[in-house]
């Protein structure tokens, strides 16, 4: 359905980034990784139920992804490859902090030097050989522990980096800032595809003619969202999502139209003629 409606130019990231903001981006990501990794390590080390550590790992990856998102917004990063690099650094920082905590809890403070890669690796090898927790009657050590660490590494580092590929919002290049999303600007009956076809083809004449609005609680309906730039006269964006509801009351969102650039006058027309929800 999206391919049929999306005849106009949908929003695409510019791929730009400001070198002056890179230190902020990588610094925020690495700092968040160190803090979250340390918290995660203390939780998993003292957790009396090792199976819960799996949940902790997933939550850590989720939190790291959110940290990269906020850091990229703060640093105006619109390049997926720069975000990917930031995601890698954030994940690696979290893993480093987690291992440092474990080493410090198991070894005297003076041994090993955590900034020395050889001693750091040697400490991990000793931990893997001896193990430091068990699953039931099984002592987790050796290749089993290395395998668990490998899975954790993939979830935390690779997972965070891959999640960073996704766009985090709509950026107005003309305004030099992120757009503010306003949801439910218009609620249309679920079969109002004529409106979406005109919008997707950028045919704005009579855009709001003969459209039928719905009130809150009526399903299915088409939710039209607005993306407002920081500067008033810059281009706005509109998107559309089909909202349906299952028998058990769960909302389902189906994308119909990706954010598409529209003139400010179109936004004014949509807002002025939309019936109250």
Question: In words, what does this structure look like?
Answer:
- A 4-stranded antiparallel beta sheet has the order 5-6-7-8.
- Mean pLDDT is 83; it is low at 1-8.
- 49% of the residues lie in helices and 18% in strands.
- It has 8 helices and 8 strands; from the N terminus they run H-H-H-H-H-E-E-H-E-E-E-H-E-E-E-H.
- With 277 residues, it is an alpha+beta fold.
- A hairpin with a 4-residue loop joins strand 3 (171-172) and strand 4.
Mean pLDDT across every amino acid position: 83
Give the SSE order as H and E letters: HHHHHEEHEEEHEEEH
Question: Oligomeric state of the chains?
Answer: single chain
Number of separate strands: 8
Radius of gyration: 25 Å
Question: pLDDT below 50 for ≥5 consecutive residues: which ranges?
Answer: 1-8
What structural class do helix, strand and pairing data support? alpha+beta
Key descriptive features of the protein:
elongated, 8 helices, 277 residues, alpha+beta, two-stranded antiparallel sheet
Walk me through the topology.
Elements: H1 2-5, H2 19-46, H3 52-74, H4 80-106, H5 117-130, E1 133-135, E2 138-140, H6 142-163, E3 171-172, E4 177-178, E5 180-189, H7 193-200, E6 221-228, E7 236-245, E8 251-262, H8 264-273
Antiparallel strand pairs: 1-2, 3-4, 5-6, 6-7, 7-8
């Amino acid at each position: 359905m999206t391919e049929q409606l999306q005849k106009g130019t949908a929003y695409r990231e510019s791929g730009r980034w400001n070198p002056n903001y890179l230190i902020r981006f990588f610094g925020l990501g690495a700092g968040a990784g160190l803090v979250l990794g340390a918290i995660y390590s203390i939780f998993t080390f003292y957790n009396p139920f090792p199976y819960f550590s799996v949940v902790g790992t997933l939550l850590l990856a989720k939190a790291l992804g959110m940290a990269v998102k906020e850091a990229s917004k703060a640093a105006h990063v619109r390049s997926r490859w720069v975000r990917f690099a930031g995601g890698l650094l954030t994940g690696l920082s979290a893993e480093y902090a987690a291992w440092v905590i474990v080493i410090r809890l198991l070894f005297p403070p003076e041994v090993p030097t955590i900034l020395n890669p050889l001693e750091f690796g040697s400490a991990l090898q000793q931990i893997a050989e001896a193990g430091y927790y068990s699953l039931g009657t099984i002592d987790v050590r050796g290749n089993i522990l290395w395998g668990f660490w490998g899975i954790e590494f993939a979830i935390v580092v690779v997972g965070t980096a891959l999640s960073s590929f996704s766009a985090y919002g709509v950026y107005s290049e003309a305004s030099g800032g992120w757009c503010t999303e306003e949801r439910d600007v218009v609620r249309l009956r679920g079969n109002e595809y004529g409106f979406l076809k005109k919008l997707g083809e950028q045919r704005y004449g009579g855009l709001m003619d003969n459209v039928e609005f719905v009130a809150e609680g009526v399903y299915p309906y088409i939710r039209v969202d607005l993306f407002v730039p920081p500067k008033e006269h810059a281009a706005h964006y509109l998107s559309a999502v089909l909202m349906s509801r299952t028998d058990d009351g769960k909302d389902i969102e189906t994308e119909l139209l990706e954010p598409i650039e529209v003139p400010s006058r179109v936004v004014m027309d949509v807002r002025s003629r939309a019936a109250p929800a």
